[in-house]
C-alpha cells in the first residue's frame, strides 16, 4: 500500500509541471505553429508561472482548495482553448477531492476521471479527434488497470499510456480545435495539447510516486 | 523579423496605451483587464454589445467601440482568446439594465472562454447575457465533424448592423435575433500571399514560397485549406467568390453588402483591384451590390492577402448599415 498523497506532494507536482512547461515552452509553441496558432507553449508557461506565484504566496490546507485555486488561476491567465480546458480539469479534480485531507490512489484515479470528464464536456472532443483527450483517455484506463499495484505503478502506467496515445494521434487528421481547419494537412503532426497532457502525467509520476 | 515594438511581452499593453491616447473622444481603457469601452458606458436602457478575441486583428474589435457599434472589446494576447474575467468585467461595465450581447467568433478558445464568462456572469451578477457565435467561413467544409466554420469577415458587418439596432433601443432578444440573422446570411473566404509573425515567436507561422498562395485561411496565421501557384487578381477573385456564392446560395436578384478586407499587409490599391473583380463576378451572377466596404478591418498582423465577405441584405439591414457610426475604425453619418 502506498501512503495517500498530501497537499504538499500535490504542490510539488504542480511546481514540477510548471518547470517542465517552462523548459518545453518553445517545443509546445513550435508544435502548435505547425497545426494551430503558435501560442500553446507561451500560454501554458504564463499560466503555470501564475500558479507558482499563487503557491509561493498561499498555503493550502486541503487538496480541494488547492486545485480549485489552480483551476481558476489557469482560466484567468492562459486564454485560448487551453485555459478553459486545463482550468476545468483542475476545478473538477479539486471538486472530486471534497473534504479529503489526503488522497488515496483510488481516490486520485476517480478525481482524474472527473477532471477529464470536465475537459470532454467543455471541449466536446472524443478519442480520435487529435486532441489532449487522445492522451487522457488511455492514461485513465491504464491508471485504473494498474492501481491495484499502488500509486507509483498507476501513475507510471498512466504516463506511459499518455505518451503512447499522443504518439498514436500524430498520424490522425484533427477533427476538433484549430488544427481541424487544416483538414488532411493536420495529419502526421504531433498534437500540442496531447503533448502538454503527457507532461502533466509524467510530472505526476515523478512527483507523487 | 523587424517590428515596431518595445518588449514582445508588452505588445498588447503598449498598443492599448496608444488607443487610449489616440481616441479619448471615443473610448476609455481598463488596462488591468485589457478592455476598451465606450466613453459614455453604460448607456441606460440600451443593450450592451461586447466582443473580443485575440489581438492582432486590429482595428477589430477595439477599433469598433463607440456610437453605433460595440460598447466594449476585450483584448486577448496576440491570437489568443481573452479570459472569462475580462468578459465578466466588460459585461458589468456596459450593462445599462437591458442586458448584454456577447459577439463571439467561432474559434474553440473564444467560444469556451465566452461560455465560461456567461455562466459566471449569470451566477454572480444576474445580468442577462445572450451570445451570437459567428461562423461564416466557407473554407471549412465538413463542419459537422470539426470545430465548425470560423467566424471571420461577417463579424465586422454584424457589429455595425447590430450596433445600430441596439442604439435604436431594441430589446436584447431582438438584437440577438438580428445578430443570428446577419450571421446566417453572410459568407466569407480568405487567402494569403504571405504568412505573419507573432511578436512572441518571432518567426512566420507557416512558410510560403514567393510563387505560392494559401487559399482558405483564417485570421490567426493558421495555414489554409490548400496551397496553389500564385495567380492574377482576376483568378483569385473567382477562387474566393465562387465558393461563397454557391454556399448560401446567393442568386439572381439578391442584394448584398460586399466587403473586400485586407489581411493587414496588402495595400489598398490591390484591395480595390480585387473589389472591381469581385463586383464584376457579382454583376455576372445577377447579384446587386447595395453597399460596399473596402479596407483593412479584420486583419492577421502583417499578413498579405485578402478576404471577401458577402452579406445578403434586405432594406432593413441596409438602413441599419447606413445609420450613424462613430468609432476609431469606422465612421460615417456622425
Q: What's the β-strand tally of chain A?
A: 0
Give the name of the CATH superfamily of chain A. Answer: DhaL domain
Number of domains of chain A: 1
CATH topology term of chain A? Serine Threonine Protein Phosphatase 5, Tetratricopeptide repeat
Radius of gyration of chain A: 16 Å
Range of helix content of chain B: 25-40%
Describe the structure.
The complex is a heterodimer of chains A (209) and B (334). Chain A has one domain: DhaL domain (Serine Threonine Protein Phosphatase 5, Tetratricopeptide repeat). Helices cover 69% and strands 0% of the residues of chain A. Chain A has helices at 7-23, 25-35, 40-57, 63-77, 82-95, 105-123, 133-146, 151-169, 192-208. The longest helix of chain A has 19 residues, at 105-123. The relative contact order of chain A is 0.15. In chain B, α2 packs across α3 (108-124), α4 (154-167) packs antiparallel against α5 (172-184) and α6 (233-247) crosses α7. With 334 residues, chain B is of the alpha/beta class. Chain B is built from eight helices and 14 strands. Chain B is globular, with a radius of gyration of 19 Å. Chain B has two domains: 11-185, Rossmann fold; 186-312, Dihydroxyacetone kinase, domain 2 (Hypothetical Protein Tm841, Chain: A,domain 3, 2-Layer Sandwich), CATH 3.30.1180.20. Chains A and B meet through α4 and α5 of A and β4 and α3 of B.
Keywords for this entry:
heterodimer; A: 209 residues; mainly alpha; Serine Threonine Protein Phosphatase 5, Tetratricopeptide repeat; 0% strand; B: alpha/beta; Hypothetical Protein Tm841, Chain: A,domain 3; six-stranded mixed β-sheet; 14 strands; 23% strand
Topology of this structure?
The complex is a heterodimer of chains A (209) and B (334).
Chain A: H1 7-23, H2 25-35, H3 40-57, H4 63-77, H5 82-95, H6 105-123, H7 133-146, H8 151-169, H9 192-208
Chain B: H1 11-22, E1 27-30, E2 35-38, E3 48-55, E4 72-78, H2 84-94, E5 100-105, H3 108-124, E6 129-134, H4 154-167, H5 172-184, E7 186-192, E8 212-215, E9 226-229, H6 233-247, E10 255-262, H7 268-284, E11 288-295, E12 305-312, H8 315-322, E13 325-326, E14 331-332
Parallel strand pairs in B: 3-4, 3-5, 5-6, 10-11
Antiparallel strand pairs in B: 1-2, 2-4, 7-8, 7-12, 8-9, 10-12, 13-14
Helix pairs in contact in B: 2-3, 4-5, 4-8, 6-7
